[in-house]
Amino acid sequence: MSARGNLKANLQLFVTRRCQLRCVYCPILKGDSVMTLETALKGADLLLGHGSSRLRLDFGGGEPLMNFGVVREVSDYAAGRAKDLGKRMGFYMVTNAVLVDDEVLEWAGRRQVLLEFSMDGAPADHNRYKAAYDRGLDPYAATRAGVDRARRAGVPHFVIMVASPANVGRLAENFEHLLDIGVRSVDLSYAIGAAWSAEDEAAFFAQVERLLSRHARALDGGEIRLGNASQRVEPTILNSELMVDPDGSLHQMTEWMFETTPATLPAPFPVGTLDSVKDINTLRWSRFHAYYTLMKMYEGNSKVQAALLNNISFGLRVGKFFRAAAGRLGKVPA
Q: Side by side, which strands form the sheet with 272-273?
């Protein structure tokens, strides 16, 4: 991929496709693949070659804490090498918080990892959309325990809350639940991969307006923070960040937005592997690449293409809404 575009100074390692949950709206195929330390170190080296002096190594999956040993070792390596090179390395992890314990929090505090916890609100909605794969696990209880530990430890974090068409009418209620348990930094999101009706979209905006009005002072003062205006890039379905699968292959994040639905054609812009790509600075991409990739991969699948166009349209309206509301949104990190 060598067309014009924004070269982002981050790289996400999908350190495993294992996960204790099977979230209804998650497009990522789960499995038993696990990234080796050798592959993770190659990913870190690729990122360290970036021309920027400020870099960020991200950890995702699956559930990245199911491969915590590799996460910890590669982060220590990347931080040390960045210091030697006169660069600043940040870290970011998307996690369901089920495995967050004192050891994880010590590491996250030492490395100043920004933790993104996925929690959809009150127990009923959380457990409905984040069903357990492992028998005997209560997803809400396990995630809340991890979030509570991080909050008490003072480790930087925020919660991402996903609304679906079936529960969007409870978005404000679920937001209030997060506040009730002590969460103060939230990103609001919406399920992708299925079409949102005009009524569902209207309900989303009405619910967000309700919570913005109710908490206007706290939001404006930064006591409560909504990250939508300051860090979320819409439409999220056109996320073209560079990812590394456990096998070391490189992809746009976009390629996995409908992964649970088999593609009809291969991705039109193959990136390569950690062994074949030697310089991250040669890789450039844009939202056009993301859009064309999805349309091409699902050529002939009108249902997926219709959902894609719907999600793009909705995402653009969501972005516009939050930009207009930016004056009411606190931007002080948790």
A: 225-226, 185-190, 157-163, 113-118, 88-95, 54-61, 10-16, 242-244, 249-252, 272-273
Does residue 17 contact residue 33 with C-beta atoms inside 8 Å? yes
Q: What is the pTM of this model?
A: 0.94
- ∠ at Cα 103 (123, 12), nearest 5°? 75
Query: 143: which 2 tokens?
Result: 């995630």
Superfamily of domain 10-328: Aldolase class I (3.20.20.70)
Pairing of strands 272-273, 185-190: unpaired
The DSSP bridge partners found for residue 163 are 190
Domain boundaries defined on the chain: 10-328
Query: What pLDDT digit, counting tens, does each position of 210-227 carry?
Result: 999 999 999 999 899 999
- Among the residues of 154-194, which ranges form H helices? 171-180
Q: What CA–CA distances, in Å, run from 226 to 26, 147, 283, 315?
A: 22, 17, 32, 17
